[in-house]
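DM between two lab members

TW: hey, do you still have the Calcium-binding protein CML44 entry open?
JB: yeah, one sec
JB: this one, 143 aa:
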Amino acid sequence: MFPLSSSHLQQIFNKLDKNGDGRVSIDELMWLLERTCIDTCRADELELLMGKTSLDFIDFLFFYDMIINVDRNKLEENQDSLIENDLHKAFEVFDSNGDGLISSEELQNALSRFGLWDEHCSSLDCKTIINSYDRNSDGFLDF
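TW: and the structure you got?
JB:
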């Protein structure tokens, strides 16, 4: 979702304000939220959240800003979750026995499967790689 200009928001506000009283009711706001597929609460919860039964244009701007920030935070959380999920999947490619650890042998096998390991490399090379990133010095990489 991208931020809208205040002139676009004014147009939206004016369309929502069906009776022309300069205020958008909670029901009118709920109509908009339902049409834009924004997960929200029930009308009574929205009224409690807003502390009002209707919003003037300034209140509408604050509400819009709050929705945009919540939506942006959800997007960031989803992206973080997707990245972590992808990292887990990549880790599992190397952790062939599924014990939650990558040994030097598992690293060598995975690199061989990818064509990134040749006969000139020794198992000591994989141990060196593991040791470079092994924070707890147990000889394995964990997630």
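TW: got it. The chain is about 60% helix and 5% strand. The first strand starts at residue 24 and ends at 25.
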